[in-house]
UniProtKB/TrEMBL annotation:
Source organism: Morchella conica CCBAS932
Pathway assignment: Glycolipid biosynthesis; glycosylphosphatidylinositol-anchor biosynthesis
Lineage: Eukaryota, Fungi, Dikarya, Ascomycota, Pezizomycotina
UniProt name for this protein: GPI transamidase component PIG-S
Keyword Protein biosynthesis assigned: no
Keywords in alphabetical order: Endoplasmic reticulum, Glycoprotein, GPI-anchor biosynthesis, Membrane, Transmembrane, Transmembrane helix
Amino acid sequence: MASTSGPNAASEIANTLSTAAVEQPPLNVVDSVDSKVTKSPPPDTPENIRTRSFVILSFWIVVISVGIPLWWITTAIYRAPLPLKEMQSWADGRACRAEFPLLIDVEAPLLPDPENLLKTVQHALDDANDFSAHHLRLRLSTNAPKSPEKEEDEVVAATLRLSPGPAGKPHSYNLTPSSRVINLSYSPSYNPSTSLSAFVASTLQEIFAEEQQMISYLLASTTSNPSSSPATSSSTSNGNNGLGKVKVNTADITRKMSRIVRYSPTYHLTFSLFTASGLPNSWDVEHAISGYLQPLLDALGGISTFTVDSQIQFYASLSSSVSPTWVPGPEGGEEKGQWVLEKEDLSSFINSAEWPLVSITSYPTINFIIYIPSKDQTPLLISDSATNAFLLPQWGGVMIMNPNHGSPNSSSSSSELTSHLSKEALKPALDLFATQLLSLLGAPTRPASLPIRLDSLTRQRSAELVVSASSTLGSLYRLTLALPSISIPSSVSTSVASTLLSLKNACRELKNGRFAGEGGALEEGKNAAIQAESAFFEKSMVGQVYFPEEHKIAVYLPLMGPVGVPLIMGATKELGRLFRAWKAQRAIR
């Protein structure tokens, strides 16, 4: 290629540069700014908007029509219907007014006008009784035959046998321990309207006073106004007949109730011999129980049954907190002295850490212990105790025996410990344990007649069972209202219905005076208490009592979050779009 030089070359370069400048477009500032702005997406077509709306709507239709019903059905808590008003009525003591009518047969063959005496005595008893639920009804016993139906319905609580006594002697009465007959001897010179009638009324009132106090105390817990019960009222007197009304000591009744073992159809009795040394090493407890205690257990069979076992524990030391005090005997006397336990030591007398006293049974256990101290700690006596024994409330009884020393509960005066306790040597202990057993079961301490005391115990236990079953129904009623999320299985409804039926039957039998036997108030009360406990402690229901609501949130939140957030956000955007479209269409109009 030919080279150029001079003015022609310079002009050619200038023309080339000017041509290039003309062909290149000038830089636009607006285009530079627009290139930095994000371009908006193209507008949705009507078909896309309808598709998106149908998708969101279809999801919500599936959730509402299928998901929520399925969740509701699978997580719903079944609550069987319960008669709540009736349960509350029984708990408040309004469903049944319990009555305890006691029929007293009066035998007075030698009285010239026994009907007039009975009317006067009955009037005196009614006036003196301020607890009408428990009342005595007198009936003149005649030689006329009675129909079997009438005899079956009319249960006689006691028989009052009136007979003239020696001249110049005042009125008196006595009870035999094994009979329900009250033998009353009256003075030949009497005035039926005053002297004899007042004595008969006061006698009957005294015999059944403790039973009346206990029943009134039990029923007071279910009444809406307990202050009106004689269990909390003071003693008053009636000026018309001179009889004092039933005296009630609330502290005594409360103390007695605190030591009574809770009722059970079956109790387990454990008899233990604890000796601080290796002697005695045997005892004839089986024959002793069979001869001295079994008759009482048979008599109590209508109220509860009993199972019995026994054990011997050698080298059983007392608790470290128990320290007997040595009391020397009088100077110049034959007695050297004795070890004395104060009443403060009795609460820690049982060495629970080392003494095997736990019985593996499903029944309440009542323990009876005979403790024989070591030779160097004999005789061991309880301060101010005639029986050298004590009672542990709701637990059992303990007797300290000193068989090698002359004491109220010993059978030998030998200076050496005996190796065997015979049946005769165990008699004082078994007799004492029988008394303690009656006390733990709640039998009245008076009167002397054991059959009357056991009848009183039957009536007390009937009242206790009715009150217990009613109270359990009240607890179940309150639990049902307090925890609406708890399930109530059909078995609870069935048990509650059975409880209410048994309570109605028990109330009816109480009014009819049928307390014991098959179909009596005690048996119906047992069924009511058992069914009420079964309803309240239903396993499937009790387990949910301790399931807090926070646990449900912890379970549902991880599941509902990933599903619920997209659904809610999609629905929110779609509703916003519909609102903007509606607003724009309205603006055009």
